[in-house]
Hints:
Elements (H helix, E strand, L loop, with lengths): L2 E10 L3 E5 L2 E5 L4 E3 L3 E3 L22 E5 L2 H8 L14 E4 L11 E4 L2 E8 L4 H7 L4 H8 L4 E7 L1 E3 L4 E5 L8 H9 L5 H9 L5 H10 L2 H4 L1
Parallel strand pairs: 6-7
Antiparallel strand pairs: 1-4, 1-7, 1-12, 2-3, 5-11, 6-10, 8-9, 8-12, 9-10
Helix pairs in contact: 5-6
Amino acid sequence: MTTTTSVVSIQVGRPRQVSWRRRSFRTGILKTPVSGPVAVTRLNLAGDEQADLSVHGGLDKAVYVYPSEHYEFWRAKLDRNDLAWGSFGENLTTTGLDEREIAVGDQLGIGSALFEVRQPRTPCHKLAFKFDRPDIIKAFWKAGRSGFYLSVLDEGVIQAGDKIIVRPAAHPRITIAQLLALLREATVDLDLVRRAIECETLPEAWKVSLRERFSEATIH
C-alpha cells in the first residue's frame, strides 16, 4: 500500500561562520526557501551544503525532513509566531509524514527522485544557536518531534508542492519514534534494540551507539 503526502517547502543553504556565546563555528543550519525545480544529488540538494561532515551530511544524512505539523507545537512552546518553514534547518518541510508512522527503510518518491528514510535527527548546539536558546536541545529531545534524515537512492528533480509516495519498508518495521524512545525512555524494549541492530538500513553509527549503551551481554 502507498500513502500520498506532499512537500510544503524546500530550503537550502551554504555553511556560514557564526559566533554565539563566545564560541565561533561554521554551520549550515541557516537555510532559506527556494522556488522552482531543485536538483537532487547523492549528497544533498543543489545549493545546499553541510558544514561538519563528521556529524552532518554524507550518504546517510543527505536530506533532512521536518513535518510542518510540528510548527504549531513549537510556536506555542517557544511563544514564537514568526517561525517560518526551514526554522529547524530542514531541507524539506512536509505534510502527512509523522515519526510515529515513518520507519527506517521506508522509501519516499518525490518528483523524479527516490529517497530512503535512514535515522532520526539528534539535536546539537547549532539548534540552540539558531533559536538563541540553550534549553531547546532538551525540549527537542523531550518533544520527540525530531524529523528524520534521508539517503538518496535515485537522483532527480523535486519542487515544492510535489506529492510524496511512501513505499513502506518490509516488516518488522522500526519507526523513527521507536528509535528515539531507545535513547529517551528509562524503560527499554530489548527486543526492539535487537531488531534495530539487525536492521539492514539503519546506519552503522546508530548500531554502534546501541551496542555501547546496551551491552552485548544484555542484548544477546
